[in-house]
Amino acid sequence: MTDYIKKASEGNYEEYVEFLSKLVEDEIDNKKIPLREAAEAIVSDAFYQLRGEQESLDKLMLKANEVLDPPCRDDEELENHTFDEVVEEISRNEIYMSQKTGTLPRPDRT
After folding, report:
1. pLDDT tens-digit readout, 18-48
2. Is residue 7 helix, strand or coil?
3. Burial grade of 35 (CB within 10 A; 0-12, 13-18, 19 or more)
4. What predicted TM-score, i.e. pTM, was given to this entire model?
């Protein structure tokens, strides 16, 4: 089981998004599912676990709101924002790599 709580308690929102992004990329490759489906599964599971550990969720929320403009009002808004960030980061990386290599982006990652 992935320890979303431990990573969230470190309190760095950007690193948390990167952590989730790597998990989503693995999910895409291992299960051969589309980006949005993989991101939904990972981010939902992470926030489900975080809601059971309020201190870690509060710390993540606090640190996220230091860098987000506008800040999130609640954990649902933070979950939605995190989902968008993960999808955007993976899509952006896939497009960059396709341009760099001169290949078409993988359709399951955009």
Report:
1. 999 999 999 999 999 999 999 999 999 999 9
2. helix
3. buried
4. 0.92
DSSP notation for 25-81: HHHHHHH---HHHHHHHHHHHHHHHHHTSHHHHHHHHHHHHHH-SSPPSSHHHHHHH
- Single-letter amino acid, residue 39: A
Torsion (CA) 99, 101, 105, 109 in degrees, nearest 10: -100
Structure tokens at 32: 């051969």
Q: Find, among 72, 55, 67, 69, the residue nearest to 8 by Cα.
A: 55
Q: Which of 102, 75, 63, 49 is nearest to 41 (CA)?
A: 49
Confidence of residue 2 (pLDDT cuts 50, 70, 90): low
Give the mean pLDDT of the chain: 93
